[in-house]
Design a protein that fits this description.
The complex is a heterodimer of chains A (368) and B (493). Chain A has helices spanning 17-26, 29-42, 46-69, 76-84, 86-118, 125-140, 144-158, 166-170, 185-198, 204-208, 219-243, 246-251, 255-259, 271-302, 306-327, 330-346, 348-366. Chain A has 368 residues and is mostly helical. Chain A has a single domain, classed as Amino acid/polyamine transporter I (Up-down Bundle). Chain A is globular, with a radius of gyration of 21 Å. Chain B folds into 3 domains: 9-113, no CATH class; 123-256, no CATH class; 281-438, no CATH class. In chain B, 47% of the residues lie in helices and 14% in strands. In chain B, a hairpin with a 5-residue loop joins β11 (241-245) and β12. Classes of the chains: A mainly alpha (368), B alpha+beta (493). Chain A binds chain B through residues 13-14, 16-17, 115, 119-120, 123, 127-128, 131, 134-135, 138-139, 142, 146, 148-150, 152-154, 156-157, 264, 266-271, 273-274, 277-278, 280-281, 284, and chain B through 302-303, 305-309, 311, 414-417, 419-421, 423-425, 427-429, 431-432, 439, 441, 444-447.
Chain lengths: 368, 493
């Protein structure tokens, strides 16, 4: 396998789309339930954990960019093969593929459960999976540009949901934040680790990099995307700590969606129905981008042609989302994905970067 | 095997007749002039007879000299002349309205173009009407249309390319663009697609449009058809490529994006704030037209909770006697509206109005009283039908009405989840469309912030110096921004 990908202008996008790609692949199912998970770990200081995690996210984004910059036009699959040889590289690439598959499955399962809880208790899982996977196939068939377009357009279609948060803000109780800074450092760090679970999806940078036109301008949109994610997480965290009482928060599984319950307009009594349904549009870029990553990686690694791979992927996802119910609960799956994801996305790149540095130094020493 | 001149008089006349399938309308006159046999041939109704007799025959017969082809061309006061030695091509020209004059013994026949065409004169536009602005519309005659375009776009920069389409029945096609502005690639795409066509005949511009469109499996039109010269010329002067087909009053323009279909030239003629308001109104009405009925169906079938309690009471009262589920009720009424529209379109204008009253008011009222539908649904359906008619492009309005039906069915089956699924599908579908290879959802994706100035809203002309980026025109600016700002008002400091 070649380390560098041949640059195809008609399949590439401008650098500023990285903002949308990174942001929409991070925000998704995780945001729905983050307040409870965080509060369980770090109590009312959970928002500090978000800040710590935000700094770490920027650090990882920086490391990822450094890795990519040390090659011409490579993605992580090529870099792994270059560093560890073809066989180990391909095996590590497969680890990525399996991990993204699991992530995709987690997102699917989470959203389907939310729909069952909030809107349709009788909605069959297979039907929801069918809906979401149809959209995934339809979008990915259009090629990389349509995949990026999906993330851009759906970002604009859903970002206005942020503004509906003004209503809970007016009902916030600032007393909930006290006592401030009482949580131990260990709890805060554990909370920060939980945040990084929510922000999974950043690894897409390592895959799309060869398809970016102006490589010099990559840094700003990447960090802007990460920053915007952190900002949204912080906003949701602060508002839900202020809005719900601490005891209530530890019991609400999807606190973010529960925030929508108070919003009502003169022609819409219960906005949360709309919000949960519209959350599908938040999920779609996730599914489409992750699906593209899998199909693309399998093509890079084993030269599988894209269309059959896509259909087989969709079948696998469909079957596993319908049958996985009996073996593992959604909660266990989410925790597992989070743990695996933490090591793959937020620790492994640092390791790769160190190896690249080492290699460079070796080369310098060997060179006369 | 084509027959070539020269030949003798009898054979010439016989061959001509054969080539025209013994047509009774072929007029052949052979006469002797100064010992020369001269044969004049034409098709009766294709030629302006008076001109022929006054300007050609008179000169020929009155002359005292022998005639030669050179003399004919030099002495007869008609500008469009040609010589032809191939009989087939000669007949072809006669079909288009030429008179052929053959002097026995010459190697070629001389053809004078004196075409007579019956067509209506310039009229007011019928399908796309403007309240404010030029009223004239194109006609079926290509010559008249070209005349109008040349008159509106008074510049030597205008390129009019001629192409012939059709294997069996040939039609003349013209590609129109501004040389110093239009993107070379767009012109080339258009030209190539028309050249590559292998069809027996092209009936109309709209048929040609469908043949060269990027995707035929979608309901959304990808090229704009218009009968308004001002819209056509305005698009050309923005750098787009236009196509005209002979015998068709509609013109075709490309490349287009989704938002262009909601633009009317009227937005330009009105003040910018009015224009922007009306344009935004159209977008809102399109969104409503798609969403309203499905939302009603979803809310009443599954999600009573989202309807406010005060409204729910009146809704419940009006639906109390309706025996059908909301989906069926909505589909029934949507069908009714579509029927009214179709019947109104087929009938003559005067009958059409009566039909509207009978169908709309009487039927609607009776349906409610009979307990078939609820009042509120009638309001919603009427509103969304009205909204769909605001699209300046008839094809786009129809597309919007068609996509409502699957949405209503999905809403009836899966409630709001079905609606969001359908909307997402629609958005991805639009993302995948292209117009002449250019992205269809243009200012949104690929994202062009500055193009919002003249697609979503319309900024005042003074503030809008740059041409839209997605057009990729050769000339980036309409005018220099600095010069425009340097105004020399007396009362300004």
């Amino acid at each position: 396998m070649k380390t560098n990908v041949r640059f195809a202008p008609d399949q590439s996008v401008q650098a500023f789309y990285l903002f949308f790609i990174i942001h929409t692949s991070q925000i998704g199912a995780g945001l729905m339930g983050i307040p409870r998970i965080l509060v369980l770990e770090s109590g009312v200081d959970a928002w500090i954990a978000v800040l710590i995690a935000g700094v770490y996210l920027h650090f990882i984004a920086f490391i990822m960019l450094q890795i990519l910059k040390s090659y011409d036009n490579a993605d992580i699959l090529g870099i792994q093969c270059d560093l560890f040889g073809t066989w180990i590289g391909k095996a590590l690439g497969m680890v990525y593929v399996i991990y993204i598959f699991q992530l995709l499955l987690t997102v699917l399962k989470n959203y389907i459960e939310v729909v069952q809880v909030f809107v349709f208790p009788e909605m069959p899982i297979w039907l929801m999976a069918f809906f979401l996977l149809t959209l995934m196939i339809y979008s990915i068939l259009g090629g990389f540009r349509v995949v990026v377009g999906t993330s851009v357009v759906f970002f604009f279609l859903t970002i206005w949901l942020v503004f509906t948060i003004y209503k809970p803000v007016t009902h916030m109780d600032w007393e909930h934040f006290t006592p401030i800074m009482q949580t131990s450092a260990g709890d805060l760090l554990r909370g920060a680790q939980q945040v990084t679970f929510t922000a999974l999806g950043m690894e897409i940078l390592l895959f799309v990099y060869p398809y970016i036109q102006d490589k010099k301008r990559v840094a700003v949109p990447t960090h802007a995307g990460v920053f915007f994610t952190t900002f949204l997480l912080l906003l949701v965290m602060v508002v839900s700590i202020g809005y719900f009482s601490p005891d209530q928060l530890t019991q609400l599984v999807w606190a973010t969606l529960s925030l929508f319950k108070i919003i009502s307009f003169s022609i819409l009594e219960r906005f949360d129905f709309i919000a949960v349904a519209l959350w599908m549009m938040v999920i779609i870029p996730n599914i489409v981008l992750f699906g593209w990553m899998i199909v693309h990686s399998l093509q890079r690694l084993f030269n599988f042609s894209k269309k059959p791979t896509l259909y087989i992927l969709a079948c696998c996802l469909f079957i596993s989302s319908v049958t996985a119910e009996k073996r593992v609960t959604v909660n266990e799956l989410t925790t597992l994905t989070g743990k695996i994801g933490f090591w793959i996305v937020f620790v492994y790149p640092v390791f790769i970067y160190l190896i690249i540095l080492l290699k460079k130094r070796m080369k310098k020493r060997n060179a006369p | 095997m084509s027959t070539l001149l020269p030949m003798n008089k009898e054979r010439y006349m016989k061959t001509s007749k054969q080539l025209l399938n013994e047509s009774p309308d072929l007029i052949q006159k052979a006469f002797k002039h100064e010992e020369q046999a001269i044969i004049v041939q034409y098709i009766a109704y294709q030629v302006e007879k008076e001109k022929l007799e006054d300007e050609v025959m008179e000169i020929i017969t009155k002359s005292k000299h022998k005639w030669s082809n050179e003399d004919l061309i030099n002495k007869i006061p008609i500008t469009s002349t040609s010589q032809e030695d191939n009989m087939d091509r000669m007949i072809q020209q006669m079909i288009h309205g030429s008179v052929s004059i053959y002097i026995e013994g010459e190697k070629e026949a001389v053809l004078f173009a004196l075409p007579k065409q019956e067509h209506r004169s310039l009229n007011q536009a019928e399908t796309e009407s403007l309240v404010f602005g030029p009223q004239v519309s194109f006609t079926e005659s290509l010559i008249t249309n070209l005349n109008v375009i040349r008159w509106r776009l008074d510049t030597s920069d205008l390129v009019v390319e001629k192409l012939i389409v059709g294997e069996r029945v040939q039609s003349e096609v013209r590609i129109v663009y501004l040389k110093s502005l239009a993107n070379e690639e767009n012109v080339e795409t258009m030209r190539q697609r028309i050249k590559d066509l292998k069809v027996a005949e092209v009936e109309d511009t709209s048929v040609l449009g469908q043949l060269i469109e990027d995707s035929s499996s979608t309901v959304f039109p990808q090229l704009i058809f218009t009968e308004l010269p001002d819209r056509f010329c305005n698009s050309i002067s923005k750098g787009r490529v236009g196509v005209m087909v002979d015998k068709s009053p509609t013109m075709l323009i490309g490349p287009m994006n989704l938002f262009n279909f909601f633009e009317s030239t009227e937005d330009l003629y009105m003040r910018w704030n009015m224009g922007s308001f009306i344009r935004l109104l159209r977008f809102v009405s399109m969104a409503l037209s798609i969403i309203l009925t499905p939302m009603y169906v979803a809310a009443l079938t599954f999600h009573y909770e989202i309807v406010p309690s005060t409204l729910l009471v009146s809704l419940g009262q009006s639906r109390a006697t309706v025996p059908f589920p909301p989906v069926l009720e909505a589909l029934l009424l949507e069908m009714l509206i579509e029927l009214l529209r179709e019947a109104g379109a087929r009938l003559p204008t005067k009958v059409g109005q009566t039909m509207g009253i009978v169908g709309g008011i009487v039927l609607g009222q009776a349906a409610v009283e009979a307990g078939f539908t609820s009042n509120i649904l009638i309001i919603i359906i009427a509103l969304s039908a009205l909204a769909s008619f605001t699209a300046p492009s008839y094809l786009m309005g129809t597309a919007i009405r068609i996509i409502r039906f699957p949405m209503i069915i999905l809403a009836g089956a899966y409630g709001i989840i079905g609606i969001v699924f359908a909307l997402s599908f629609l958005v991805i579908h639009l993302l995948k469309q292209k117009s002449l290879g250019r992205p269809y959802l243009s200012p949104i994706y690929p994202f062009q912030w500055k193009d919002f100035n003249e697609s979503i809203i319309r900024l005042p002309f003074q503030k809008n110096a740059e041409r839209s980026k997605s057009m990729m025109t050769k000339d980036k600016d309409r005018y220099s921004n600095d010069k425009a700002n340097e105004r020399k008002d007396v009362d300004r400091l």
